[in-house]
Design a protein that fits this description.
Elements: E1 17-19, E2 26-28, H1 30-36, H2 41-47, H3 50-62, H4 66-81, H5 84-105, E3 145-149, E4 155-157, H6 159-163, E5 167-175, E6 181-190, H7 191-197, E7 206-211, E8 216-220, H8 221-224, E9 230-235, E10 238-239, E11 249-251, E12 264-270
Parallel strand pairs: 3-12
Antiparallel strand pairs: 1-2, 3-4, 5-6, 6-9, 7-8, 7-12, 9-10, 9-11
Length: 290
């Protein structure tokens, strides 16, 4: 057996190299392995090296996927809505877009659901929901509907003239914006038939109505011409009661309840709306189709 040659390292200094058995190669000793092993990430972060932290942050942001960014988008939008100066503008734009989309989808031939007599809400359970007062004190014997605007035959019309038109009775749902709905039985003349009588320009954009209690409302022309839109003078096959809008109200089953004005006194055909409706002018939807 050959003896190992004595080390040429200086006395007092240890050679930090071990020979790999059978390979004749030098491999790192324990001290070198420890020096070359990277410290755990948590240790580096605890050191507070700004450059390392910055690099890590940029890399993490770069790895954000499109899906993750989309998840953040609603939070950003909510943040925008939280800015008081932007809220009203954003809400108006959103409401305007909703009304526009609803108008595009509205079809005169698409009917609201109708129901059997057995489905009717008893009239005593039909809510009385008024704008101002239950009874504005209309003198029924003297009542007239004043017609104006883009019509060939303006003037005042008696209830009997409206009742002379073909009577339509329909069981339809009445939906209130407050969250309740009932199924009622309504009777009257189609508004489209009355518009024909007065020679209305049906290329005009709107119908507006005024009421004895100072309420006011408007309908787009497509809704006014819809076959289920009635000048209603009956409920449950009986004349309207004062609480339900006597002597004449709108029944529009394709629209929410506040579009169905009571105590009608005026009707105008027009292309311009000075006022949209009592609730709409306070921020509610103009179209509000069902």
């Amino acid at each position: 057996m050959d003896l190992q040659k004595p080390s040429s390292a200086p006395v007092g200094k240890t050679e930090n190299v071990e020979m790999a058995a059978g390979e004749g190669k030098a491999r790192p000793g324990p001290a070198e392995v420890a020096a070359a092993t990277p410290e755990p990430a948590s240790e580096r972060q605890r050191e507070g090296d700004p450059k390392k932290i910055s690099a890590n942050s940029e890399a993490a942001f770069a790895r954000l996927s499109r899906r993750e960014l989309l998840k953040v988008a609603p939070v950003v939008l909510l943040g925008v809505f939280a800015v008081p100066s932007l809220q009203e503008s954003l809400l108006k734009r959103g409401l305007g877009f909703s009304d526009w989309a609803s108008k595009q989808l509205f079809r005169r031939g698409h009917l609201a659901p109708t129901f059997e007599d057995s489905d009717l809400t008893p009239i005593e359970k039909f809510p009385i929901n008024d704008y101002d007062v239950d009874d504005p004190g209309v003198i029924l014997e003297n009542w007239r509907l004043t017609v104006s605007g883009a019509v060939q035959r303006p003037g005042e019309y008696k209830l009997a003239q409206i009742q002379a038109l073909p009577r339509i009775r329909q069981n339809t749902r009445h939906v209130c914006v407050e969250g309740w709905d009932v199924i009622g039985r309504f009777g009257g003349a189609r508004l489209s038939d009355f518009l024909n009588v007065i020679g209305a320009d049906t290329s005009a954009r709107f119908i507006t109505v005024g009421c004895a209690d100072d309420y006011y409302e408007s309908l787009d022309m497509a809704t006014a011409l819809h076959p289920q839109t009635l000048l209603c003078y009956e409920m449950y096959d009986q004349p309207l009661t004062r609480e339900h809008g006597a002597p004449l109200r709108l029944n529009v089953p394709t629209k929410v309840g506040y579009k169905q004005a009571k105590y009608l006194t005026d009707l105008k055909v027009t292309n311009i709306l000075d006022k949209v409706g009592y609730w709409e002018d306070q921020g509610y939807s103009e179209f509000y189709g069902l």
